[in-house]
């Protein structure tokens, strides 16, 4: 991209101040990106947590010179170019629309409720032998993601594949003008709830707006959709059942039988679950529309592969951290991965293992020169290049080692070459970089608890949206972040500018400090022997009794601190910890004019905020809190923060927000209210693998105590997870189930310490396949109900020997 500012000003309707002759070669919305430079046009977007305008000076000092802002910053007058607009997001979209207009080649626009990203990735794979394709990186399909995707187009591309995702009425029209698809693809419209829409009809109609001017709409024929397609739209449809569809399809296992007016043929897919099959058929329809022959379609469809859409962070050997993006090596996603790498600050040193990049649209010298510049702006310490092309162009890079093939890399591989660093592993599929990840990964057993960091951000924003303006937020990350990982989550919360973290014990707080967390941390249950460490690590104790207060004051005096932040806990009915009304006079007398400590906050805890039938009790607790805390505040003439609400308190008692709330389980996607649960995203998914499969005959038994006796021939799979990992024994004996290949497989017999067995009769699966213990289905809420406990216990019981893997979508 090389654009003149002069042309951009009218395109986004800006007021301008600065030098109109400047040129722009890249666009950024992320102040942290090391890719920002003097040719960057920075759009200062304002989101829920961050306002891009806050970073202007910092960016200026890093050499960024062109800014799209809503207000002209007087103090930076004359120092840079400013394009002042009403709304910076709209300006970004206008900019992308302006940029898009310079290109005229076919564009496939993909939308739907499920399968968008998979269809986009598969179409890219299927069509790439014939086309130079630009596609949305990852699942960049939002109001921000689509313009950023469009901006990746260059002169050499001759086909685009962009996905569009919406959650509100009116959003699709904005994406349509950016993508302007010539070929429309509607993927599965799902049975998912119609959140953000009044009805299913409204949701579907909104999605169809993407295809307003498309020459063709490709979709699965369905009366519900048919009724909403505008008259005059040309369509190309398929169906398993409807004889009016253009293409008739029948499925038998992995075989699809295709019948069109011109061809009758069979294709074999490498899978048979219904959603993958449907996505593959959608791709097949596009290939047919493009005029591909049955022979080519047969050959290519059987090579379809599972799509990994996300960057995974894993623990590697020798204290390394791996960022696994082993199935992807286009230029756009490389930029994203490098920004992600920059934001992972576990280690100083950064290494990238990169394969040849295909389909950039550029000539190879231009491509690798650009990539080398990108690496140098991202301050990558070491590059390992694998492939003929990167080897040929190695001279553009400093500190690169190259190998012609992945096998050559393994030939020279020495595990001691990798230590104390973050390693981004990014390769195109044919290079099989998953094998490199496998070598570099720290080996533990194959059960993992996957934590979706995006879902945490989503849930955080959901609860934030329930707070009145100015209310502060403490997030409880006790018990290892409710079992989900404390350090990684704390870092994310720090990024989201949460005000406080809360943990139960001093050593949890110390671990967070040692991991580099600098934000305020409250310790709920500090024990006297830990007071010294609490002060040394700058942690803030909750004080709940006169005896504890005296003990803390003694240690505070030894350390000679003054105004040390403490939090006063009041007992308003929970009867766990806290000062009662009768203690207040002593508390006031001891603390009044005491220079050692300063009360940062006064809090209490609710006992029944999640039980609607006990609403009166909660109201009485809030009233009592009001009374006691007011007495304290007025006797001491102080204005500390007051807080009493936990997650279900935030949901059910909005009048009790005071100055701060304490969010816990809600962050992890759990609510006591079914209605609210719909708005939350699942955070943790516990997965394992099938170790062994066997068939047993009627009358044979499974496991300790022979609690399962087969009544007919039964296929049994053994999974390496047991009660020592936190799976309760009472979940066994067909009370509970695992999900295998989208189907329920009941747990048969007793759960063992390290293993359990499931009945997989009739489920297509193999040894080594992944199984799900909990996640979206079954949810921990469902599990907890069946087991007569609460989701908190299920989450925090998962043993620390289960590896946690964090990822972003
Ligand atoms: C755990 C805890 C919370 C958070 O409770 P959730 O129900 O998980 O939201 C809040 N305050 C205190 C004192 C806690 O111990």
From TrEMBL:
Q: Give the Gene Ontology MF terms in alphabetical order.
A: alanine racemase activity; ATP binding; pyridoxal phosphate binding; UDP-N-acetylmuramoyl-tripeptide-D-alanyl-D-alanine ligase activity
> Which cofactors?
pyridoxal 5'-phosphate
Per the Swiss-Prot or TrEMBL record, the active site comprises: 478, 704
Q: Entry's Pfam families? A: Ala_racemase_C, Ala_racemase_N, Mur_ligase_M
- Which SMART domains does the record cross-reference, listed alphabetically? Ala_racemase_C
- Keyword Isomerase assigned: yes
Q: Which UniProt keywords apply?
A: ATP-binding, Cell cycle, Cell division, Cell shape, Cell wall biogenesis/degradation, Cytoplasm, Isomerase, Ligase, Nucleotide-binding, Peptidoglycan synthesis, Pyridoxal phosphate
**Segments traversing the membrane:** none
BP GO terms, sorted: cell division; cell wall organization; D-alanine biosynthetic process; peptidoglycan biosynthetic process; regulation of cell shape
Which residues does the UniProt record annotate as the domain Alanine racemase C-terminal? 683-807
| NCBIfam families in the cross-refs | alr (TIGR00492), murF (TIGR01143), PRK11930.1 (NF008897)
Please state what the protein is called: Alanine racemase
Give the source species: Flavobacterium kingsejongi
């Amino acid at each position: 991209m090389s654009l003149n500012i002069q042309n951009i000003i009218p395109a986004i309707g800006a007021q301008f101040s600065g030098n109109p002759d400047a040129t722009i070669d890249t666009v950024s919305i992320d102040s942290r990106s090391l890719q920002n430079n003097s040719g960057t046009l920075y759009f200062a977007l304002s989101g829920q947590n961050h306002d891009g305008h806050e970073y202007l000076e910092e960016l200026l000092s890093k050499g960024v010179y062109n800014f799209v802002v809503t207000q002209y910053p007087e103090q930076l007058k004359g120092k840079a170019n400013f394009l002042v607009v009403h709304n910076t997001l709209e300006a970004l979209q206008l900019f992308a629309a302006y940029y898009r207009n310079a290109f005229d080649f076919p564009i496939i626009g993909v939308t739907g409720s499920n399968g968008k990203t998979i269809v986009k990735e598969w179409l890219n794979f299927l069509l790439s032998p014939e086309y130079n394709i630009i596609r949305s990186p990852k699942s960049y399909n939002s109001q921000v993601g689509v313009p950023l995707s469009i901006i990746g187009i260059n002169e050499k591309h001759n086909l685009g594949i962009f996905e569009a995702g919406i959650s509100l009425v009116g959003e699709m029209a904005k994406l349509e003008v950016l993508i302007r698809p010539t070929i429309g693809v509607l993927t599965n419209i799902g049975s998912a709830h119609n959140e953000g829409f009044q009805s299913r009809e409204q949701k579907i109609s909104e999605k169809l707006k993407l295809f307003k001017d498309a020459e063709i709409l490709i979709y699965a024929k369905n009366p519900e959709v048919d009724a909403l397609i505008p008259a005059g739209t040309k369509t190309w449809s398929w169906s398993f059942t409807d004889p009016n569809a253009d293409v008739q399809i029948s499925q038998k296992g992995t075989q699809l039988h295709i019948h069109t007016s011109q061809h009758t043929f069979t294709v074999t897919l490498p899978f048979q679950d219904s959603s993958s099959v449907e996505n593959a058929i959608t791709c097949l329809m596009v290939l047919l529309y493009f005029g591909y022959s049955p022979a080519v379609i047969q050959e290519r469809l059987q090579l379809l592969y599972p799509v990994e859409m996300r960057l995974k962070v894993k623990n590697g050997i020798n204290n390394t951290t791996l960022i696994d993006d082993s199935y992807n090596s286009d230029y756009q996603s490389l930029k994203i991965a490098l920004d992600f790498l920059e934001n992972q600050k576990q280690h100083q040193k950064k290494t990238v293992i990169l394969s040849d990049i295909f389909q950039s649209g550029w000539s190879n010298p231009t491509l690798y020169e650009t990539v080398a510049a990108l690496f140098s702006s991202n301050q990558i310490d070491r590059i390992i290049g694998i492939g003929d092309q990167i080897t040929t162009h190695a001279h553009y890079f400093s500190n690169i080692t190259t190998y012609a093939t992945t096998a050559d890399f393994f030939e020279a591989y020495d595990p001691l070459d990798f230590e104390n660093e973050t390693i981004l592993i990014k390769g195109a599929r044919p290079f099989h970089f998953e094998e490199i990840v496998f070598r570099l990964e720290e080996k533990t057993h194959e059960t993992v608890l996957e934590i979706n960091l995006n879902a945490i951000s989503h849930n955080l924003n959901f609860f934030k949206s329930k707070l009145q303006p100015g209310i502060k937020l403490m997030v409880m990350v006790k018990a290892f972040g409710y079992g989900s990982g404390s350090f990684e989550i704390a870092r994310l919360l720090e990024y989201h500018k949460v005000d406080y973290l809360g943990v139960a014990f001093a050593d949890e707080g110390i671990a967070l400090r040692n991991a580099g967390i600098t934000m305020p941390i409250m310790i709920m249950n500090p024990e006297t022997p830990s007071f010294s460490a609490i002060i040394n690590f700058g942690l803030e104790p909750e004080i709940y009794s006169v005896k504890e207060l005296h003990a803390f004051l003694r240690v505070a005096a030894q350390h000679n601190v003054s105004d040390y932040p403490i939090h006063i806990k009041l007992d308003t009915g929970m009867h766990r910890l806290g000062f009662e009304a009768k203690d207040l006079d002593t508390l006031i007398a001891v603390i009044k004019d005491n220079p050692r400590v300063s009360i940062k906050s006064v809090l209490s805890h609710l006992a029944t905020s999640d039980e609607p039938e006990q609403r009166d009790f909660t109201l009485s607790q809030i009233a009592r809190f009001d009374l006691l805390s007011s007495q304290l505040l007025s006797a001491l003439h102080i204005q500390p923060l007051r807080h009493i609400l936990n997650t279900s308190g935030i949901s059910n008692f909005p009048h009790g927000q005071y100055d701060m709330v304490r969010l816990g389980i809600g962050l992890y996607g759990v609510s006591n209210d079914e209605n609210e649960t719909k708005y939350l995203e699942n955070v943790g998914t516990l997965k394992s693998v099938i170790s062994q499969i066997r068939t047993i005959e009627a009358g044979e038994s499974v496991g300790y105590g022979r609690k399962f006796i087969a009544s007919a021939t039964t296929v049994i799979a053994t999974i390496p997870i047991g009660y020592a990992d936190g799976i309760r024994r009472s979940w066994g004996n067909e009370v509970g189930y695992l999900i295998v290949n989208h189907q329920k497989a009941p747990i048969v017999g007793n759960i063992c310490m390290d293993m359990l067995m499931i009945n997989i009769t009739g489920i297509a699966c193999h040894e080594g396949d992944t199984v799900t213990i909990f996640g979206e289905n079954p949810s921990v809420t469902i599990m907890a109900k069946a087991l007569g406990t609460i989701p908190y216990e299920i989450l925090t019981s998962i043993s620390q020997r289960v590896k946690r893997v964090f990822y972003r979508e």
